[in-house]
C-alpha cells in the first residue's frame, strides 16, 4: 500500500488516507459486482445544520437495481472500537440527508436503497451490508 504524505510533517494527510481507503473500498465492492454511480456526493450545509457527504454511491447487481450508499471509514489500528464504531448517530443523519437529496434529483420511481459501511482497520477490510437504515 502506498503512503501519501503532505510534504511538511512527513505524515500521511487525512485527505490522502481517506482517498486511498475509498479506492480500496471501491475496488473491493466492484469485485463483488457493484457498479460505481458517483463518488463523494456532497450536500451543502444549511442555515441550521452541517451538510452531508456520501463517499460512494453504487448500483448493486441485483435485478431491482438497488442503490447502495457507502460510508468508508479507516483507522490505522483497531483503537477506540475501530473504524466501524466511529460512525456516530450525527454522521448517519448527515449521510441520510445527502442520500435523500440525491434521490430527489432522480426522475421517476426511486429504486430500493441501502446504507453500507466499509470499515478498514489497518490491513483488515470489513464490508457491513445494510449497516443502518434511514428510519
From TrEMBL:
Keyword check for Nuclease: yes
Residue ranges crossing the lipid bilayer per the database entry: none
Pfam families assigned to the protein according to its UniProt record, in alphabetical order: UPF0102
Any GO MF annotation of the entry: nucleic acid binding
Annotated signal peptide: none
SUPFAM superfamilies: Restriction endonuclease-like
UniProt keywords, alphabetically: Endonuclease, Hydrolase, Nuclease
Source domain of life: Bacteria
NCBIfam families: PRK12497.1-3 (NF009150), YraN family protein (TIGR00252)
Family to which this protein belongs: Belongs to the UPF0102 family.
Protein name (Swiss-Prot/TrEMBL): UPF0102 protein ABIC99_003722
Amino acid at each position: 500500500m502506498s503512503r501519501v504524505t503532505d510534504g511538511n510533517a512527513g505524515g500521511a494527510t487525512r485527505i490522502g488516507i481517506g482517498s486511498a481507503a475509498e479506492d480500496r473500498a471501491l475496488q473491493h465492492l466492484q469485485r463483488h459486482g457493484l457498479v460505481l454511480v458517483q463518488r463523494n456526493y456532497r450536500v451543502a450545509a444549511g442555515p441550521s445544520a452541517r451538510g452531508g457527504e456520501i463517499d460512494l454511491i453504487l448500483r448493486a447487481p441485483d435485478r431491482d437495481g438497488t442503490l447502495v450508499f457507502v460510508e468508508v471509514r479507516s483507522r490505522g489500528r483497531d483503537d477506540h472500537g475501530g473504524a466501524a464504531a466511529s460512525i456516530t448517530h450525527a454522521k448517519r443523519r448527515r449521510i441520510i440527508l445527502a442520500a435523500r437529496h440525491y434521490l430527489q434529483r432522480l426522475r421517476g420511481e426511486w429504486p430500493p436503497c441501502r446504507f453500507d459501511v466499509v470499515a478498514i482497520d489497518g490491513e483488515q477490510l470489513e464490508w457491513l451490508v445494510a449497516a443502518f437504515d434511514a428510519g
